[in-house]
Design goal:
Blueprint lengths: L6 H19 L6 H8 L3 H7 L3 H29 L4 H10 L6 H14 L6 H28 L8 H19 L5 H15 L9
């Protein structure tokens, strides 16, 4: 009986190997041969799943982006289950974008490495732009919902507030890698979110 192979899982394993390679050697250190060696498979197997190096890199970037998004969504679901105010939900969600542990730090370093490639690769640029726009949109929706439940003043520009919070979080993520104190950073983020959501939530009376 032929051995069954989970092709999606194999692609994910190869992409994870490429992420480790990028984390240690940078994007310029990635070759199909090195990707195969890191994944513990043959070059032919890598080429079976990815037609080119660019396809391999795009899949790796997409996997990093999706994993970061999954952490955010898990934090949101947990917060909603706990019936927390929107302010706390947003704080927990934004915290997931910060490189505060080994896994999130690796994701952040690798995503930064890819950022330089977006100017020359339309596919990567499109994914990057799409991801940022989606995140800002989700934050703007949270601010809008905050206005509905009384946490956010009615005259607040939801899109502008969302853009500020996301840009602030992005900046914190960058500076955490340059010596910013993690605990102080999280507390400052919490204060900045609270400034947008100063009211009391009426949702969970």
């Amino acid at each position: 009986m032929p051995k069954l192979v989970d092709h999606a899982a194999r692609r994910a394993e190869i992409a994870a190997a490429v992420q480790r390679l990028i984390d240690h050697e940078g994007l310029d250190g990635v070759t199909v041969a090195k990707a195969a060696a890191t994944a513990g498979i043959s070059v032919g197997q890598v080429q079976h799943y990815f037609a080119s190096k660019d396809a391999l890199l795009e899949a790796t970037y997409r996997q990093v982006v999706e994993r970061m998004g999954a952490r955010v969504q898990a934090a949101v679901r947990e917060s909603v289950t706990e019936r927390l105010p929107i302010r706390a939900v947003v704080t927990r969600a934004l915290r997931e974008y910060l490189p505060l542990d080994a896994a999130s730090a690796s994701d952040h370093r690798v995503s930064l490495a890819f950022l330089g490639r977006t100017t020359a690769n339309p596919d990567l640029a499109g994914l990057h732009t799409e991801t940022l726009a989606a995140t800002r949109g989700q934050l703007a929706l949270a601010v809008h919902n905050g206005k509905e439940c009384g946490e956010v003043p009615g005259d607040t520009d939801a899109k502008a507030a969302a853009a500020r919070l996301f840009a602030l979080t992005d900046g914190f993520a960058l500076h955490l890698g340059a010596g910013l104190d993690p605990e102080e950073t999280v507390e400052t983020l919490r204060e900045e979110v609270a400034a947008v959501f100063p009211g009391r939530c009426r949702q969970w009376k």
